[in-house]
Design goal:
single chain; globular; alpha+beta; Aminoglycoside 3'-phosphotransferase, Chain: A, domain 2; Phosphorylase Kinase, domain 1
């Protein structure tokens, strides 16, 4: 098993019995997870591997937040407490956390009814409202987010990525699609460069990575929101829009506007967000998508192809969204 965790030392710290089986969970892009069965029960073992989120003190702060949310009735899976009273075990310089195993499955928007999409939006609104209650008041910053990406920087990045595509040998179908989308995106930015959004509005505490692989369902009901590594202070309405673009994107790169609308209306109601805040968030996230090429950067700069399957739909969505901009705004703010 690659990157095998030090099970003996970890389980002793938690008093969690002896390991029977330990299987990698392959869906995470940044950290490593394992389905662990011991003589005491079943657990999810998380290896906090990503340098940006692996500081034990910061992990414990996130753990405390999830426990407070659980106390409010939000479906989360707080970690177990080790014998030393901590929720993070550091072994060999690596940080680990042990969570109860939550049986469930991931569901994308195509597997949800319109009513269930409303419940999904309400759940995210409850998360945002709950975080506002449980996070320490002195850490609630109200500074505005940065101005939208500068298209001049994006044009330079497009040229750099196009050069990398040309140099890649042997050329393949991914290179062909990447080249097409890069040229297409440059044309869109040239036509819409005057629509760069200004500094954003109010911010608050957010999950930071709310998408189908971080939400487990049992039957029709959400059982646990997982992976709180990106918990932080960001524009809340923008998280709602970003999540919708992942949950409700169709394989061809269009958005199910009926389901997105049900989701957005429920989110506004439970989060206390206004239609104008959602409309502004749609504009900022649209601009962000026009200027974002993280999947191509992973592929060509890092040689990391794990995000490649997401690229066709995500890259097509930016084009469709530009064409259907008014309809998307109406779905989120109407």
């Amino acid at each position: 098993m690659p990157h095998a965790p030090p099970l003996g030392a970890l389980l002793r710290q938690y008093g969690a019995g002896s390991a029977l089986t330990c299987e990698p969970v392959d869906q995470g892009l940044l950290n490593r997870g394992y389905r662990l069965c011991t003589t005491r029960g079943r657990y999810f073992l998380k290896h906090h591997f990503d340098p940006e989120t692996a500081d034990p003190t910061a992990i414990e702060r996130r753990h405390r937040a999830t426990q407070r949310l659980a106390d409010l009735g939000v479906p989360v899976a707080p970690p177990l407490v080790a014998r030393d009273g901590r929720t993070v075990a550091v072994v060999g310089g690596h940080a680990y956390a042990l969570h109860p195993w939550i049986e469930g499955r991931h569901r994308h928007g195509g597997q949800l009814s319109t009513e269930q999409c409303g419940r999904l939006g309400a759940l995210l609104g409850v998360v945002h409202a709950g975080l506002e209650r449980v996070m320490p008041a002195h850490t609630r910053r109200r500074t505005a987010p940065a101005e939208g990406a500068d298209p001049a920087d994006t044009f330079a990045l497009i040229d750099e990525l196009l050069a990398r595509v040309r140099r890649h040998r042997p050329a393949d179908s991914f290179d062909e699609l990447a080249r097409h989308r890069l040229l297409e995106r440059r044309g869109l930015l040239e036509r819409h460069a005057d629509r760069r959004p200004p500094h954003g509005g109010s911010v608050g505490w957010v999950h930071g990575d709310f998408h189908p692989f971080n939400l487990l369902y049992q039957g029709d009901a959400p059982a646990a929101i997982v992976d709180w590594d990106r918990l932080g202070v960001q524009p809340r309405a923008e998280e709602a829009v970003r999540a919708a673009m992942i949950f409700f994107v169709r394989p061809e790169g269009t958005l199910d506007l009926s389901k997105a609308g049900a989701y957005a209306r429920a989110y506004r109601r439970t989060a206390g967000a206004t239609p104008s805040q959602l409309a502004a968030a749609v504009h900022r996230v649209w601009w962000e998508r026009l200027n974002d090429f993280w999947m191509l950067r992973w592929h060509y700069e890092r040689g990391d192809t794990r995000a490649d399957p997401q690229f066709p739909a995500a890259s097509a969505l930016a084009v469709w969204w530009t064409r259907e901009y008014d309809a998307v705004c109406e779905a989120f703010s109407g």
